[in-house]
Amino acid sequence: xxxxxxxxxxxxxxxxxxxxxxxxxxxxxxxxxxxxxxxxxxxxxxxxxxxxxxxxxxxxxxxxxxxxxxxxxxxxxxxxxxxxxxxxxxxxxxxxxxxxxxxxxxxxxxxxxxxxxxxxxxxxxxxxxxxxxxxxxxxxxxxxxxxxxxxxxxxxxxxxxxxxxxxxxxxxxxxxxxxxxxxxxxxxxxxxxxxxxxxxxxxxxxxxxxxxxxxxxxxxxxxxxxxxxxxxxxxxxxxxxxxxxxxxxxxxxxxxxxxxxxxxxxxxxxxxxxxxxxxxxxxxxxxxxxxxxxxxxxxxxxxxxxxxxxxxxxxxxxxxxxxxxxxxxxxxxxxxxxxxxxxxx
Length: 345
Hints:
Elements: H1 3-45, H2 51-61, E1 67-71, H3 74-88, E2 93-95, H4 98-101, E3 114-119, H5 125-128, H6 131-137, E4 140-145, H7 151-155, E5 158-161, H8 177-196, H9 201-206, H10 212-216, E6 225-226, E7 232-234, H11 239-248, E8 255-259, E9 265-270, H12 271-279, E10 294-295, H13 306-316, E11 320-324, E12 330-335, H14 336-341
Parallel strand pairs: 1-2, 1-3, 3-4, 4-5, 7-8
Antiparallel strand pairs: 6-12, 8-9, 9-10, 11-12
């Protein structure tokens, strides 16, 4: 019987040893991950941008065609991202696979284009094979590579040297720190170009209509119910007229703006107001809507951002808000259901 307690003690000891061992392994894994981040951030920090960078920015700003970005293997994926960043921030751009370019896709490149060629080693055969043809086409080539002595550098018109980058791979082989540097330099180019040309929030939203960023930059005028879909009644009209307008207006909004004789907003009447009247037995629908409307309603301008308008609806805990012009005349109605459908809320 005495052996049973001893067995339990041994089992508990083994369990604690396994737990300690697991914690140590986890710490080692975390440290390895941190080492990769440190290596990549250090490699980026060592990049010394010079006058060639400024010249590349000027070339892109003055480009009458497109910025064509190319790269093979892992740099190819980086090239696709750089091209996408340029295009989404107002610089026409496309990615061309260097192997496909050698089989006809060179036709995508024209003499007014600027080509960004990414290769850490500067010896990528698929890219080097394109240089004579690019020279004949007349496109200018910017090499983003290790140094100015690589074969790619010698065949390019301009070189952005990233330096001799030690990979974060334990074997020193897999492109890691070098691709991080290529991406960072590409982002630096794109953002510097963006800061040097007129490109406002509206243009950015135009290029991002389907994403959260674009939706967040949409204006109230793009979503409000305007013209015939904008319900409006005069304050001296009977409640029955307000109910009829809310019922008969396209989309059956749950509210109507109320205006004075000059057409200026003086209140709002909602489904909630109607329900409360009925609950209290106040069913005289011949009386003027001004006797039951909500006064001093929250309003927004057509040029306001939808995200700001949505914030007003949330804070006021209302489902509709009138959209007014500079003279306080209702030109639209913003409904919470439309905000939900557009995924603004």
